[in-house]
Every structure is written in C-alpha cells, then in structure tokens.
Amino acid sequence: MKNFGTVAISLVSLSLGLAAHAAPTVAPTPTVRPGVAPQARSIFRIEGEVIAVANKCGEPITARVKLTNKTTKPWSGVVNLSAITMKSVSVSLASEGADATKTVDLSLTTTLDCKKPLGNHNIRVWGAGGPADVVYSKALRATKVTAERPYTAPSGANTQPWLRRVVLNGACGGAISPTVYLQSSGNQPQSANVKLTFGAATTEKAVSVLNATPVTLDVPGTLDCQAATGIPAFEYALLTGNAVAGKLDAVEIMFEP
C-alpha cells in the first residue's frame, strides 16, 4: 500500500508539472478568402467626390459634390457648404441603380470677394444622426486664378502696334506672369513701349512687335491667394502706337481639395 501511494503522488506531481510548463494557447489565424482584403468591408459606405467648379469674383460662392451609396440600404442625409455663411441641401440615395449616385450643386448667398483673403470652402455630408454623423468632409482651397480681356483691332488703315489681349493666369502658391499680347500689321517689326504692374512688381520697356507678340511681366515670389488685400489687379499700358491703358482684376477662382 505504501508503494502504491508513492506512485499516485508522483503521477499527480508529474501531471501538475507538465501543465505548468505547457505552451501558451495560440489563437487561430483568421481565415481570409483569397483576393479579399480584411478591410474590404470599408466599401460599404457613402462615397463622396468634390467636382471642381470655377467661382467668379463678385458672384455667389458655389460647390458641387457627387455622392454614391455603397451601402446595401437606401440612405438619406444632408450636404453642407460653409464659407462665411452656410447652405444645406437634403439628399436621398437609393441602394442601387441610377438613383444610388447623385450630383448636388450648392450655392451661397455670400459672394466671392477677391479683394480679401479667399479662405477655404468646407464641404460636409452627414446622415440621420445630424452634424455629428459626418460620412464625408473636404476642405476646398483656392488653387488657380484666371482673367482675360480681348481688344478690338483698329481700322484697316491703321498699321501701328495695338493691344490685342490681356491675360492674368496663375496658381495660388506658384509663379504668376501677367501677359499682354501686342499685334502689328505688315512684315517689318515695329517698336512699342509698354508699362506693366502687378502688386509691387512693375516694368516699363520697349519691345519689337511683329504680328502677335507677347510681353510678360516677371513677378518675383509666388501668388498669395490669402493676402489681406486679395488678388492684385494687373495694370497695363501701351504707351505708343494705338495707346491704351487699363486694369484687369481676377475673374475666376478655382477651388479644389
């Protein structure tokens, strides 16, 4: 009996020792179907895309958003545009078919003042939970400035150089080179004097005009679309020939993500 007790105690001790040194349990590796990423469930959402539109200086601020329902149920919500003031538009999307995608145009009563910092335009889309239930948001910033003014040719008997076109194109944060285009008649170059000013940059020079001749003002630095005084006007003057002077303000501003 004494021997059997010793064996039993030894077996129990051995069993406890093995349990104490057993390898920790390893969680099974989740099974993923071939070709399906673990984050694939993220496709079931409301998908938004801002469509860039040009805003005209002095006219109401506008924006355009394309929404697509990637869920499995119909969805209703609100598209909101804010830029000084706000505008909200309700939208409903079907779960499938043509009505699962809609393009929403928004327009504020606030006009775009290009003589002030252009700021950002903010797009937010939310669901039934209200503004706290945002499903898409995007800040739009001014990216491009555009303006152009054509001039009419003088009478046929007038062969002196004349101003054909004035162009102001530039990228916010990038270089800008306002340009005037001079025109002349005949096969011989003619001289003309021009004066160009944009912000602190100015030049006055004599140029040789033969047919269509561009004259560009090289502006140092970059175009600051958030300057306190907004976008400067491009001042120009043809001082000889068919003399003319004018001032070209920015006309269109492109806002993009």
General description of the model:
The protein has 257 residues and is mainly beta. It folds into two domains: 44-143, Macroglobulin (MG2) domain (Immunoglobulin-like), CATH 2.60.40; 146-256, Immunoglobulin-like. It has one helix and 16 strands. The chain has one helix at 2-20, and strands at 46-50, 53-56, 60-69, 75-83, 85-93, 101-111, 120-126, 134-150, 162-171, 179-183, 190-198, 201-209, 213-216, 234-238, 244-248, 252-256. The strands form three sheets. Strands 2, 4, 5, 7, 8, 9, 10, 13 and 16 form a nine-stranded antiparallel sheet that branches. Strands 12-11-14-15 form a four-stranded antiparallel sheet, with no helix packed on it. A three-stranded antiparallel sheet has the order 1-3-6, with no helix packed on it. The radius of gyration is 34 Å and the shape is elongated.
Provide the descriptors you would attach to this structure in a database record.
disordered N terminus, 9-stranded antiparallel β-sheet, mainly beta, Immunoglobulin-like, 2 domains, 4-stranded antiparallel β-sheet, about 260 residues
